[in-house]
Design goal:
The chain is mainly β. The protein is built from no helices and 17 strands. It has one domain. It starts with 9 loop residues before the first strand and ends with a strand.
């Protein structure tokens, strides 16, 4: 769903010297370089990406399809599709994800909670192309 060509564009930016108090709702993509005290959530009817840069601090809940964190988050993180934790990521709260990529140096002070799938996925063995039902 999120290869280089199909990612939603980053249409909004909260600059490094900006501070926002209150909840934010966005469509497409949002990059936060400043400080936000409030929940940040993407619309659920379209693909979304949320970037928390290394200069950013968010105190509140995050919710989007694809979330990239390289700053500080104090609150739960809900990545519906993919969560990327860059080396300077600091999360104080539980992390909910479907797919997770975590770089060396990232810190989570909370529980990792993988998404629960409705059906067990079909696994393909690369060696002999046999299928297994999970």
């Amino acid at each position: 769903m999120f290869n280089k060509k199909k990612q939603p564009p980053l249409r909004s930016l909260i600059a490094e010297d900006s501070e926002i108090d209150g909840d934010l709702k966005f469509a497409d993509g949002l990059r936060i370089d400043g400080k936000v005290r409030g929940n940040v959530s993407a619309r659920v009817d379209a693909a979304s990406i949320l970037v928390i840069s290394e200069t950013a601090t968010v105190t509140g809940e995050l919710m989007a399809d694809h979330i990239i964190v390289n700053g500080t988050v104090r609150g739960p993180v809900h990545a519906r599709v993919m969560l990327e934790l860059q080396p300077k990521a600091r999360i104080e709260g539980d992390v909910y994800y479907t797919a997770l990529e975590m770089h060396q140096g990232a810190i989570i002070d909370g529980q990792l909670r993988p998404g629960i799938e409705e059906e067990k996925p079909t696994l393909k063995l690369a060696a002999n192309n046999r299928q297994l039902n999970g």
